[in-house]
Write a structure and sequence with these properties.
This protein is of the alpha+beta class. It has three domains: 182 residues, no CATH class; 165 residues, no CATH class; 68 residues, Arc Repressor Mutant, subunit A. The protein contains 23 helices and eight strands. Strands 3-2-5-6 form a four-stranded mixed sheet. It has a two-stranded antiparallel ribbon with strand order 1-4.
Length: 526
């Protein structure tokens, strides 16, 4: 074996993205709500960035955005154009007075630095509202977690002292739905030893007793279940116990006791057949009539397979459209504009811009200010670039898909992203990021912007139609089918062919799966 060193030359190309470019792409991809949050974070952390209160001009076109007068160009924070500060000094004589005394002689650097500190102190004490602090104060408080709520119930429940730490350990292993997905043996091994407990881990018998106590004592019923069968049985048992112990007229349940008992038998013995919609088999083996089975299934539909969600409801974020499309009757066209009036108007704080060039300010402070000035300008530029790119993409979509706004989603045409990218002279990845998680408000409702980009199929006449249009026709066929005799995928393919869509059975199955529609056997109603 021989070791040696040598030199080689290699010619190649590599593309490396600067951090700022990566962040700019992230800004472009953000939906409106995320962008608002990103701007609020920058306002809270960057002292050189501030809000501009601009009164909206009702007569101004919606497609234009209000400009801020005298905004500093700080693309290079080290080269601030002070000629643009003339109007600021006229309107704010204190800003000029901090540099020169009454006789026109330049003040010592320490006096000027003290003046800036006094200005910052007075700004904090003058009682005027601080937009940054108000935004931070209005942030929603953290909600109470499922584990915290269940543990609070457990601490006041009537249970023996030896079981309390074991039940608390079990609660800490419950998932967001309220299920215990971890075996009890693993809970005993991984749970940290509570303070004041000598024997740990607990025995298998104690773990079982503690789990039963958690399932029976905590609300809502079903928490602590290890699978869907146990979850439904716990809820049915709780309903039956409520009916047995309540006085006349006080019982509240999802169904009468006989219906609940039949539902319990179905869940306990025939859950697999129920999941596969084998209702005749359940009727044959259980001796129940179809009407009794249907009433039991109706009672089961009112139960929850995720009982933990009842305590901690999943936060649903409202859909905020990034753009709006309206019909212009006078010119018979659709116009598009951005819904970014909610975004705050930003500008550079002029006093900090002056401080970045004032040698009376310590160098460390000036460097800190210059860094924040650069970050502020980058954010403003990135937001403006996002606005320009998104508006161009939306207008291209409106122009290409006018028939959708006139006739509905069935008129959607194939529109590859590459076509729009070539039209706008940008990379296809830019178009993809611009439409990601974006919605537009149209005359036919709020629609995802990405949904306008789709491949296509050819009809018998040779005309191209989008896949979404085929899905819409497929859904219409399924909605109007005979539920007692639902259409198979083969029958749906033939029905679509009669409508002019030449599509294979496997494609029908793929589209049906993408829309979350089960097969014919699961759609059948007895």
């Amino acid at each position: 074996m021989r070791f040696e060193t040598s030199q080689h030359m290699k010619l190649g190309q590599q593309m490396k993205l600067a951090p700022r470019m990566i962040q700019s792409m992230e800004i472009l991809q953000m939906p409106l709500a995320e962008l608002e949050e990103r701007i609020e974070q920058e306002l809270a952390s960057n002292p050189t960035l501030e809000l501009v209160e601009v009164e909206p001009d009702e007569n101004a076109p919606r497609e234009t955005q209000p400009d801020t007068d005298g905004e500093l160009d700080l693309s290079d924070p080290g080269e601030v154009d002070f000629a643009r500060l003339d109007t600021f000094e006229e309107a704010n004589p204190d800003a000029a007075a901090n540099t020169f005394d009454e006789g026109g002689v330049e003040k010592p650097e320490q006096d000027r630095a003290d003046h800036y500190e006094d200005r910052r102190s007075s700004a904090r004490l003058d009682g005027e509202p601080n937009a940054k602090m108000e935004a931070m104060a209005s942030a929603p408080a953290r909600g109470v977690s499922l584990g915290e709520q269940l543990l609070a119930q457990w601490n006041v429940s009537d249970v023996s002292e030896p079981l309390r730490p074991i039940g608390a350990a079990i609660i800490s292993f419950l998932d967001e739905d309220g299920y215990l997905r971890v075996p009890l043996e693993e809970v005993a091994e991984k749970a940290p030893k509570p303070g004041g407990v000598e024997l740990w881990p607990p025995s298998k018998e104690d773990m079982e007793l503690a789990l039963q106590a958690v399932q029976l004592l905590l609300e809502p019923a079903g928490v602590g279940a290890r699978d869907a069968r146990e979850c439904l049985l716990l809820q049915l048992d709780a309903q039956l116990d409520a009916l047995d112990t309540a006085e006349d007229g006080e019982a509240r349940a999802v169904a009468p006791a006989p219906v609940l008992r039949r539902a319990r038998v179905i869940v306990d013995r025939y859950l697999d057949d129920l999941m596969k919609n084998r209702l005749p088999k359940i009727a044959e083996e259980s001796g129940m009539s179809m009407d009794e089975i249907r009433s039991a299934i109706e009672a089961l539909r009112r139960l929850s397979l995720a009982p933990g969600r009842r305590l901690v409801a999943e936060r649903t974020e409202p859909i905020i459209p990034d753009a709006i499309v309206e019909y212009d009757e006078d010119n018979d066209r659709y116009i598009a504009y951005l819904n970014d009036s909610r975004l705050p108007n930003l500008r550079i704080n002029r006093e900090y811009a002056m401080m970045s060039k004032d040698r009376a300010v310590p160098k460390a402070d000036r460097d800190f200010i210059k860094t924040n000035l650069s970050n502020a300008r980058w954010l403003m530029d990135a937001v403006e670039q996002r606005r320009s790119t998104l508006l161009r993409v939306v207008r291209a979509v409106v122009e290409a898909q006018r028939d959708v706004f006139d006739h509905g989603i069935e008129a959607l045409k194939p529109l590859p992203m590459t076509r729009v990218a070539e039209q706008l002279g940008v990379h296809v990845a830019t178009v993809s990021r611009a439409v990601a998680d974006k919605y537009i408000l149209t005359p036919i409702g709020v629609l995802p912007l990405r949904g306008f980009f789709t491949g296509g199929l050819a009809t018998e006449s040779g005309e191209e139609v989008s896949a979404n249009a085929v899905k819409a026709a497929l859904k219409e066929l399924i909605d109007n089918e005979d539920k007692a005799k639902p259409l198979s995928d083969e029958a749906l393919a033939r029905a679509l062919k009669e409508k002019g869509f030449e599509i294979a059975r496997r494609t029908v199955a793929k589209y049906r799966g993408q829309m979350g529609i089960p097969g014919a056997r699961m759609r059948k109603q007895f």
